[in-house]
Amino acid sequence: MKKIMVSGCLGQIGTELVTKLRHDYGAENVLATDIREDTAHALPEGPFVILDARDGKKYAEQVEKFKPDTIYHLAGLLSATAEKNPQLAWDININGTCNALECGRIYHSAVFFPSSIAAFGPGTPHDKTPQDTLQRPNTIYGVTKVASELLAEYYHKKWGVDTRGVRFPGLISYKTLPGGGTTDYAVDIYYQAVQQGRYTSYIARGTYMDMMYIPDAIDGMIQLMEADPSRLIHRCCFNITSMSFEPEQVAAAIRAHIPSFALDYAVDPVRQAIADSWPNSLDDSAARAEWDWNPKYDLESMTADMLKNLRAKLG
Ligand code: AKB
Q1: 45-77 burial string, b = 16+ CB within 10 Å, else e?
Q2: Does the annotation count 141 as an active-site position?
Q3: Quick check: CB of 78 below 6 Å from ligand 1?
Q4: What is the pTM of this model?
Q5: Which atom of ligand 1 sits closest to the CA of residue 82?
Q6: Is the pLDDT of residue 76 over 90?
Q7: How far is 45 from 15, CA to CA, in rounded Å?
Q8: Tens of pLDDT, residues 164-196
Q9: Rounded distance from Cα 171 to ligand 1 centre (Å)
Q10: ipTM of the predicted structure?
């Protein structure tokens, strides 16, 4: 049976990943860790430890004790929060990742690392952004993602650590709210549609970004970590996407269910500048070819599922 450790387990990805892993592999085989425990009750029962991923000694102690064959290292700050506190972003995103990779090297655990569309910058081709292309981001979040991609690649080549990762687009979920990202509008819009029937977007009309419904993201992570290594030409990290849209298109999809839904704009210049530096759409053909990446949800099916579940959740 596999043994798995997750850092940053109470974030948007971690909460749903731990739920699925505990269901698939048995609760006792999945160690969940986070710097805080306030929402730990949202996880299905199983081992939980408070861990600041920057603390290399404690990280190593947990890995030595639990002996995971795979570490999903999710602890990190998102783009908008990172831009407000670049030093903290560097500390958490880089030092946390170094600690996970060191544990991978010393204790022979595979390491999953979540990169982002933020690993690209204004000089990268914006449409159908290739897997291998120019990566010169102009945000601290993007800088930490590129540096971590290179580190993870280095650990694989130099020490044979089984590092793998994806470049996530904006992730959309009705269970856990994202915190401090640029793509968060694409989650907020659904909450506000159900609660208020209207939404004011901080991202401008016509701004395209890649997005994904969280069940596809979770399935993709597990699928990549279980993929046959002999098929992997790339490692850190694969472009993956499910859809690319701009705010008017989400609004139109919502109006198929809530015809009176209204959308207006109060653009936030900081998050708009970040969005403008990112791709409009990714080319994910390498992930499709090397480990059969094949997401299930598009904008219409995701919208129907989000609204159904949010109506049930919010009443
Ligand atoms: C963010 O907006 O910061 C994240 C991301 C795309 O990495 N959702």
Answers
A1: ebebbebbbbebebbeebbeebebbbbbbbbbb
A2: yes
A3: yes
A4: 0.96
A5: 3
A6: yes
A7: 12
A8: 999 999 999 999 887 899 999 999 999 999 999
A9: 8
A10: 0.98
